[in-house]
Design a protein that fits this description.
With 493 residues, this protein is an all-beta fold. It has two helices and 40 strands. The strands form four sheets. The protein has a 14-stranded mixed β-sheet. A 13-stranded parallel β-sheet has the order 1-2-4-8-13-16-19-22-25-28-31-34-37.
Length: 493
Amino acid sequence: MTTALAGTRTFSVTDDATLDAVPFATLTAGDVVNIHYRSTPYKRIIRVHTSGTEAAPIIIHGVTDSSGNRPVFSGDGAAVATGCLSIFDFAYPNSWVDREAIGLIATAIGAGDNYNDRPKYVTFQNLEVLDVRLGKSYSDADGITRAWGEASGIRVQDGADIVVQNCVIHDCDFGYFTQANNGDALHAPLRPVLRNCRIYDCGMVGRATEHGVYLQAIDPIIEGNYLGLNRVGSDGSSFKSRSANLVFRYNWVEASARGLDIVHSEDSWLGVQAAPNYGVSHVYGNVICNDWMRLGRGAAYPMHLGGDNMGEDGPVGFAPVTDASLTASGNLRVYQHTLYAYGNTFMFRSNSNQTYRMSWFDLSLSGTATQPRTTVYEWDNAVLMEGTSEWAQLRYAGQIVHGGGSIAQVTGTLRASHENADPSKFNISGTLTLGTLGLTDYRVTAAAPRAGTPAGLPSTFRSELAAVSSQPRVLSNGIAPRTNTSVIGALQD
């Protein structure tokens, strides 16, 4: 159970009328909006366009009941909260800056805001969000009924230091979404945090462009979340990132289409792509589960790193990016990535009828005769490949550098690469031990000591992130302490 919080100004919400009375358009540092659980959902669209401070954030806080039930926000028949009406620009109803259709709960600049403004230090916590999806409708700021489509449960349209934590998001086109606008750093979300949330049953049936989590940001932290399967019939990924300096840790992921899809930024050329450590990701302490035998569906290539959306336009004055232009000087940088993957548990189970081939890492659009490869540095991982599928370490091209400690328990043969890859375009170095993990409830019970961080890593590796000191909770979202940090894999207790 969570209790109400006290703020500089404190607002108590128990029904639609008291929610409408909250002055969302003028919230300031230290304001707290306590939204209490009730048996029926709140049906309101909320926008925050103002800023708190690091010491005094604006907090939208769900107050749970004695059973831990969060207040529910439903997009089915939702209307704009009265206190948010002035945020919307009626002169430009189709603007992606502030229009209602982007999602149910969001941060975004609003009508009358300076273009250089953006919300900062806002926290949304302890909320349940659902039914923001095609087939459901809402009332816009003009009172006109419109259909949801390609919308988000919770969205960071603009913002810095926006935290979403302890929320449940499901049955939405996108669960959680961050947007990088206009190709500049100012309008790329900065340091967003998604923490201890449950996101599942999202996506759009028959489409591959809507995902459980879609992230395009600078310095994001994704930690302690349960990212479940998307809606049946959806081809989107559980998690897709187009970010710079991603930290993805202590999460539990059920793979849909792709469990983790880490690719290039597509519409923030002077923002995300220009940021330090663009294309660098630290993925550690996670359970990545692609279990066709248990779940009946999953991903053929659960870990994808590399290029996406070929043929898109680049910045003004630059030619469109095409296959032919990839070999030109400098162009391929957009598609090159560096992944540090360590202390994770990868569980891949299938048979040849479900998924004929499955690779640990799918490294596409990576490497030419003259340009560097996308590279995965991995160590201290527990890898299960069980079933009759054809197993491989990588697909297409790129490079894997084994740093030690990892054990792969494989049914059948583990090949270097699938898809008849050109040997000149991929490379595997170091040693991956084939052995027995003795997995019990996803925990490694065999003697499997950590090797520790290998020497010789590039300077982009952040040494302060080296310790795998926590673990994802198995039965619920969140992070638990890890009492034994000397064993490989994500789970100890």
